[in-house]
Amino acid sequence: MDPRPLQFVVGKGGVGKSTITAAIAIAYVRAGRRVLAIELGRREGLSRLLAPSIATGAEPVEVRPGLWLARVQGDDALAEYLEMVVPIRRLLNIVFASRMYRYFVAAAPGLKELMAIGKIWFERQKKREDGRPLWDTIVVDAGASGQSLQYLQMPAAAARTFRKGLVHRESERVAALLSDAETTAVHVVAIPEDMPLTEAREVLARLANELKLPVGTVYLNRTRAGAPEGATIAVDALSRVSSDSPNGALATAVHATATRSLAWIRLQEDKLDRFERGVSRRCVRLPLLTAEEFGLAEIEQLADALGPSPVTRTP
């Protein structure tokens, strides 16, 4: 697992980003880290997985020992920022109620995305009484690829657009944090299907070449386990069982099922091998889990599959 303290999880919709984010958070809690998991935007997938019975908002809430959860939205982050710089509550209420403010928030390109990432930057700056960071690890469920890259590119874009002043200074600080390869990692999630793998390849290229952000791990979610040793020999043996024998019908049914399973495994391995060669990196494969209702037990299984953590326990 990646030791960097700020981690974003991105990928095509439906590939299990919230699930992987939750598993990463739990794995770091196990390693003794104080973890903040953040859900970016109005989605609630991470909240449903980690704290289905707890209301979450912008302020972190402890949902299990060592793990806090927050949901960051751009308009809420902007309002929180204004509360810090406009201390007069009466004046602030007038601003929030004005039609001009609502029009400005709706029309300003990238403002909400910038403020949301700024909120994450703010959480990264918080300290404990002894001077250590309040959070050892912050893991962000950044949403579908298009939206998440829009969030991640806004600080650098704003710093270039506004050449001086408050917006430039704040954007530059946030952009510097995101591009710091010692601090930040952007993980990409895909599943062994053509469209998600194609999008993951494009996201990796944009992160490296256009956005120049540090890439973390590529997680290949919902992968089938490889065929057990001797599976092909066993299937061949089943094909030779006569349908007229006492167990002939059963052997035929098992042979058909096993043949289909082996074909799916071969197809998956071909796709994933070509993908790994194309992006020039080895990926972490996470198992396909089947459950009537996906919950914390399955998240714990995925946390087991993430691999060894280099993190030492925090006193």
Can you describe this structure in just a few lines?
By secondary structure, the protein is α/β, with parallel strands linked by helices. The protein is 52% helix and 16% strand. Strand 6, helix 9 and strand 7 form a beta-alpha-beta unit.
Characterise the protein shown here:
By secondary structure, the chain is α/β, with parallel strands linked by helices. The chain has one domain (6-224, 288-305): Rossmann fold (3-Layer(aba) Sandwich). Helices cover 52% and strands 16% of the residues. It is built from twelve helices and eight strands. Strands 3-4-2-5-1-6-7-8 form an eight-stranded mixed beta sheet, sandwiched between helices. Helix 9 (194-210) packs parallel to helix 11 (248-279). The longest helix has 32 residues, at 248-279. It is elongated, with a radius of gyration of 24 Å. The relative contact order is 0.16. The model is unreliable at 310-315 (pLDDT under 50).
Features:
single chain; 315 residues; alpha/beta; Rossmann fold; eight-stranded mixed beta sheet
How does the SSE layout of this entry go?
Layout: E1 6-11, H1 17-30, E2 35-40, H2 45-50, E3 61-64, E4 67-72, H3 74-85, H4 89-97, H5 99-107, H6 111-125, E5 137-144, H7 145-161, H8 166-179, E6 184-190, H9 194-210, E7 215-223, H10 231-239, H11 248-279, E8 284-287, H12 296-305
Parallel strand pairs: 1-5, 1-6, 2-4, 2-5, 6-7, 7-8
Antiparallel strand pairs: 3-4
Low-confidence stretches: 310-315
Number of helices: 12
Q: Name the CATH class.
A: Alpha Beta
Number of strands: 8
Give the percentage of residues in beta strands: 15-25%
Average pLDDT confidence is: 82
Structural class: alpha/beta
Count of separate structural domains: 1
Strand order across the largest sheet: 3-4-2-5-1-6-7-8
The helix-strand sequence is EHEHEEHHHHEHHEHEHHEH
Biggest sheet record: 8 strands, mixed
* CATH H-level homologous superfamily name: P-loop containing nucleotide triphosphate hydrolases
CATH topology title:
Rossmann fold
Assign the CATH architecture: 3-Layer(aba) Sandwich
From the spread of the alpha carbons, the general shape counts as elongated
Task: Summarize the amount of helix as a percent range.
Answer: 40-55%
Radius of gyration: 24 Å
